[in-house]
UniProtKB/TrEMBL annotation:
Domain annotation RagB/SusD: ranges: 17-107
Coiled coil stretches, renumbered: none
Compartments, record wording: Cell outer membrane
Similarity-based family: Belongs to the SusD family.
Family matches, as InterPro entries: SusD_RagB_dom (IPR012944), TPR-like_helical_dom_sf (IPR011990)
Pfam families according to UniProt: SusD_RagB
UniProt key word Iron-sulfur: no
Keyword terms of this UniProt record: Cell outer membrane, Membrane, Signal
Native species: Arenibacter troitsensis
Subcellular location, principal: membrane
Entry annotated with the keyword Heme: no
GO cellular component term, pick one: cell outer membrane
Name of this protein: SusD family protein
Length: 108
């Protein structure tokens, strides 16, 4: 099996290849809690563009990242008991009349 340093290298290579932030990547690595976080926008440095500061860019966090969803009421949620699996279509469950195929947890 992999040791932790090899796994770290594999994860780092995935990040360099722009992987790790798609939903499938997050689910594969069992990091669903990341999907519950509010995404940030680009990092904005007002010193570089002093005349470009307008209302959307004025809403940055303490690290300088734009917070595009600030003030919205839509909360992002990830239920680990449900959202790691997709629901099984009812038409597929119906192919097993003896109850051999059950719906995935949380999708009943």
């Amino acid at each position: 099996m992999f040791n932790s340093s090899i796994l770290s290298i594999v994860l780092f290579c995935g990040m360099c290849a722009a992987e790790g932030m798609r939903r499938d990547d997050i689910v594969r690595w069992k990091a669903g809690q990341l999907l519950a976080q509010t995404p940030l926008g680009a990092k904005f440095n007002p010193d570089v563009y002093p005349n470009a500061v307008n209302e959307p860019f004025a809403r940055t966090n303490s690290d300088g990242f734009v917070e595009p969803y600030q003030g919205t009421s839509r909360a992002r949620q990830f239920d680990e008991g449900k959202n790691y699996l997709y629901p099984i279509p009812p038409s597929q469950i119906g192919l097993y009349p003896n109850g051999e195929l059950k719906q995935n947890p949380g999708w009943e």
